[in-house]
Here is the input.
Amino acid sequence: MTVNADVSPELQLAVERWLYDEAELLDDKRFDDWLERLADDVAYLVPIRSNRPVRGDRSEPPTVQSAHIEDDKHGLRVRVKRLNTGLAWAEDPPTKTRHLISNVRVDPGDGPRELRVKSNFYIYIARPNVEHASFAGERRDVLRTVVGPRRFELVRRTVVLDQTTLATNTLSLFF
Amino acid sequence: MIDAASHSRPVLEGLINAAGDTLSARAFVDEELYQLELERVFAKCWLFLVPAGEIPNPGDFFSTYMGEDPVLVVRQRDGSIAAFLNQCRHRGASLCRSDNGNAKVFQCSYHGWTYDTAGRLTAIPGEAQNFAQPLDRDEWSAVRVPRIAVENGLVFGCFDEHAPSFRESLGDAAPYFDAMFARSAGGLDSIPGAFRWRVKGNWKLAAEQAASDGYHFFISHASSIIAITPDGAPAPPKASTPNVQFSSEFGHGIGLLTDMSRLPVNDEVRTGPHTSRWLVDVERPEAAKRVGALMTTQNRPIYGLIFPTFGYLPSNHTIRVFLPKGPDEFEVIAWSVVPHEAPPEVREEVRVSTGRSFGALGIFEQDDAANWNDIRHALRGYAARRTRFNMQMGNGPVRVDETYPGSVQTSESEFGSRRFYRRWLNLLAADEA
Here is the structure.
């Protein structure tokens, strides 16, 4: 894939920096600050994936399915509110997470203020008692440019996990 | 190998005390006990396989496990459902590696032995040229699950040809089973997309909780209860609401909420306004016509386990099966479910809210997994394994309340846990047939 002529190196760098700053907020558990970066009409989706045959499969994938996470801003606020209660036992003491974000691909979006941004992630999660887990996948984001130092807000994120059966679900994290 | 002498009945009996209300921690870690469970629980009992609606068309298959035995559950051309071991009879490789899909045949990728959708051996590469005589198809087909029952759109299988029928295996839980699953003409539809996740813990912890445990809800899930309660709304209760706990000697357990208005988190918050109204205006009155008022308009099923591993959370609209993966890990396959008759707006509320609460990454579900993880962690220790766990809550005499079928306790209780583990132990200790 070639660099899109509509995406300047400056814009590429600005988007990357936005993603890295977002990862820092998540790893520092500054979830309220993270919510501020989301558009009011944000759509956050983590689809369920399954292992299906390569050939000979005549079935149609269903159009409406369950999802691991399918949250609007209210739904994401509920998740953050839970963490802020101090009663989410799986997070006491807090898990340590590290988001590694790479392979950032920026393209023009559907509207003049929107960008389509793909990135890959690797998230390491450590719980007490040396339990640890990691997740890899791709994020397919839509960012909208906004006035102000933040520059962008997240309008849409689809998280394509590379695990089908999740190896752990004690996950109070955001991808 | 299992040492037969160490599993003589007295040794197994020691796992539960004479009063039946304390349990050895060994039950959750012992590898030999686990192997005995595979033989005497999972190869003997009716096990949940899949919602029939997940495999509607001929050739549709779903891959799951009975105990640790991999099985393919396949819709046949005549509409019936067959299940067989996902294991080639030649060298034992998988017949199919996919979770689900549609297939005309299943061909082993090792040497190409090919089976039809019922598991019958149909083709062997080189058979005519290189085998002295054709192989006997009856002898060398995939091992069939001999017993299949489809009840209210739920598919169950049993490896034991001599087991009682599925209905008989319900015993006095049958009226409760029907009140949960036969309350509408169309039964429950599963919403496509099975949640699958692993938990580091023993499968019995999840099963027992589904059978018996309303007790944990207000502590384990405190953060989630607060989180989904709207800002400014009255604080949710911090202790148990009135309930009735039914338990069967066969290990099944069902919890009923007796005060319909006091669900700790009401349906509007839990699921959505359309669902809340529809349950009251349509679903319960219609269900009452089919299965009576007791468990529709007068009491509300809130949790249930069909022994050993099929769990249902009716007010959270999810069914799940717990698949053992050794003594210290299990896999959950869960679906969101909605009555077939539900209008589109109710389906949509259920789909989104159930994923948010009780999907693999649902906020309530995470709370449980963390606890089960920790139990496993402690049981790595020698002293910890020698402890006994207390399940004495509500251990007064078993009551028979004429209002309810079977035996119930009418206060918060671990009645269901005690009967769950007693049934489990009875199966482990059963003499060889």
Remarks:
- The CA atoms of residues 16 and 62 of chain A lie 35 Å apart.
- The radius of gyration of chain A is 17 Å.
